[in-house]
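Internal tracking record. Fields below are filled automatically when a chain is submitted to the structure queue. Please do not edit lines marked as system-generated. If the sequence contains nonstandard residues, flag them in the REMARKS field before resubmitting.
Queue: standard
Priority: normal
Entity type: single polypeptide chain
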Amino acid sequence: MLVQVTRVLSGSSSGSTAQTLLLLPLAGMAGSGKTTLIQRLHSHLHAQKRPPYIINMDPAVTHVPYNANIDIRDTVR
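SYSTEM-GENERATED OUTPUT FOLLOWS
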């Protein structure tokens, strides 16, 4: 399910502006292709000059083929 979030940014010289964010929560069984999907979305969005903000919430994964902005493995040992 794709979730659209709009937030209002205030304090700009022209008043407030709205920013729309798209969130894609992704869950699935092991081996179902979650990492492959995120890797391809990551590549596609970078090619479109719209770099994504990725959060890896899987502490058991040993390697992710993209840079996650936040990685749960950094806090769980």
